[in-house]
């Protein structure tokens, strides 16, 4: 949940631990529940039937178009020209213009960049030392570099120290509860820092677009492809729209993928038998070489592990709020007033025992010759507003994981504090993930933290 939306104070109380709050509401056993007591205009839905009602009808349940509201003429307001803040025809047109960036040919180029940068990054990981690694931080660094290369066409190391650092700082400030709780532009305030970072980011993005226009040539990166995209009338994206999408691409394709990768490595540590099975598949199929996109079709255990990890520890446990566009909106047997806010939580939908027996158990084998009902599995959303880059994310996570596990098996250090921290709509590791190289033949060491509330280790 990003700032500038103007939600009631009741929603602010939700920000400290949205995952815990939503899962507590799910235990009430109802399909539509007020998110906060005495505030029925903000509700959470449970069960894939209600998720389908909301996600399949974007005209009735709209995204908030004031998501990035800022002072008139501000750079922050310029960043509102992205899919998550658009509805109707504007959303459909802009989504269509994004499609060429995720077509088959660009995806093959992205895969080569992902493999190359992952290999270079892994060579610098001190996995042979006695000191543990913060695997969550290492994964964020890895995926940021990949985003800089695949989406912006920039050399990862240089870009991470420039525009990448600004993006990271910007999202940290934007999603901080202090910024949301005190949205007043005063000297030294989080709001002032948010607006200043938006200005710095917009300046960098304008410079990036100008450089690309000067260089010309056939684009390989996503922003270059967006600049070249044209709709049926021959029109393209404006600079404001390009800047909005450039930011959205990195935010959506960086932090979420990083935490998907980190949480998967953590779950494999907790389940060494699965780790051994996956490592054996990688060794047999790849024989020590880097994976390619066609290889992913020959790695069914890898596929099942990633699917189950995205279900159990959903890196994006909350979707952006939808707003009822019509008076007296029907939602199952319930009626909601116009402008009521509706929250769909993938991490809650993924705990529906009707669909997933023993839903809190990490069981990749459940995916053998089985698929859940539509709208019961939402790692990338579903329906007309599903993540446009879902194929990029799904493939990049599998490529990175395959490369990491061929180099090292990471195991949690004893007593590590593993806890959730949800900012925006991404579930981070509050204290990082302290891991070091180890053998898959040893049992997992005990760890502390509220992660035990999310997984039944069995």
Tell me roughly what share of residues is in helical segments: 40-55%
Our count of helices gives: 18
Mean pLDDT: 91
Given the helix and strand composition, which structural class is it? Answer: alpha+beta
Major β-sheet annotation: 5 strands, mixed
Give the overall shape, derived from the CA principal axes.
Answer: globular
User: What string, H for helix and E for strand, traces the elements in order?
Assistant: HHEEHEHHHEHHHHHHHHHHEEEEHHEEEE
- N/C terminus separation: 33 Å
Q: Write down the Rg.
A: 22 Å
What topology, given as strand order, has the largest sheet?
A: 1-2-8-5-3
Provide the low-confidence segments as ranges.
1-8
Q: Let me know the number of strands.
A: 12
Strand content: 5-15%
Keywords, separated by commas or semicolons:
12 strands; 18 helices
Can you describe what's shown?
Strand 10 (420-423) and strand 11 (426-429) form a beta hairpin. The protein is an alpha+beta fold and 458 residues long. The chain is globular, with a radius of gyration of 22 Å. The strands form four sheets. Strands 1-2-8-5-3 form a five-stranded mixed beta sheet, sandwiched between helices. Strands 4-12-9 form a three-stranded antiparallel beta sheet. Strands 6-7 form a two-stranded antiparallel ribbon. It is 47% helix and 9% strand. It is built from 18 helices and twelve strands. 47% of the residues are buried. Helix 7 runs antiparallel to helix 13 (239-270).
């Amino acid at each position: 949940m990003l700032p500038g939306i103007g939600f009631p104070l009741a929603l602010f109380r939700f920000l400290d631990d949205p995952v815990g709050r939503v899962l507590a509401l799910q235990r009430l056993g109802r399909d539509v529940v007020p998110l906060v007591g005495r505030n029925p205009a903000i509700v959470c839905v449970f069960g894939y039937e209600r998720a389908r009602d909301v996600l399949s009808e974007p005209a009735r349940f709209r995204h908030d178009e004031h998501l990035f509201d800022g002072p008139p003429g501000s750079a922050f307001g310029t960043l509102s020209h992205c899919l998550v803040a658009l509805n109707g025809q504007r959303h459909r047109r802009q989504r269509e213009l994004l499609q060429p960036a995720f077509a088959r040919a660009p995806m093959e180029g992205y895969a080569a960049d992902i493999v190359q940068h992952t290999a270079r990054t892994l060579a610098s990981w001190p996995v042979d030392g006695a000191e543990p690694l913060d695997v969550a931080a290492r994964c964020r660094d890895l995926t940021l570099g990949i985003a800089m290369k695949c989406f912006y066409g920039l050399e990862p190391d240089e870009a991470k120290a420039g525009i990448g650092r600004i993006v990271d700082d910007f999202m940290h400030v934007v999603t901080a509860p202090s910024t949301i709780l005190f949205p007043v532009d005063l000297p030294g305030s989080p709001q002032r820092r948010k607006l200043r970072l938006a200005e710095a980011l917009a300046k960098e993005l304008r410079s990036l677009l100008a450089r690309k226009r000067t260089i010309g040539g056939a684009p390989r990166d996503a922003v270059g492809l967006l600049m070249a995209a044209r709709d049926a009338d021959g029109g393209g994206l404006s600079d404001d729209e390009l800047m909005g999408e450039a930011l959205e691409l990195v935010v959506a394709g960086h932090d979420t993928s990083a935490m998907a990768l980190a949480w998967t490595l953590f779950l494999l540590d907790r389940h060494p038998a699965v780790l051994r099975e996956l490592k054996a598949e990688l060794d047999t199929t790849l024989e020590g070489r880097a994976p390619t996109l066609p290889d992913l079709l020959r790695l069914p255990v890898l596929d099942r592990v990633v699917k189950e990890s995205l279900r159990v520890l959903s890196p994006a446990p909350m979707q952006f709020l939808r707003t009822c566009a019509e008076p007296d909106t029907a939602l199952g047997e319930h009626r909601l007033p116009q402008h009521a806010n509706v929250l769909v939580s993938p991490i809650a939908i993924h705990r529906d025992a009707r669909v997933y027996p023993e839903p809190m158990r990490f069981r990749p084998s459940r995916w053998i010759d089985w698929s859940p009902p539509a709208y019961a599995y939402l790692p990338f959303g579903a329906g007309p507003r599903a993540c446009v880059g879902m194929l990029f994310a799904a493939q990049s996570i599998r490529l990175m994981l395959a490369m990491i596990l061929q180099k090292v098996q990471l195991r949690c250090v004893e007593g590590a504090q593993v806890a959730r921290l949800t900012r925006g709509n991404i579930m981070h590791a509050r204290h990082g993930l302290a891991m070091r190289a180890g053998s898959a033949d040893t049992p997992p060491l005990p760890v502390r933290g509220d992660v035990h509330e999310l997984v039944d280790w069995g």
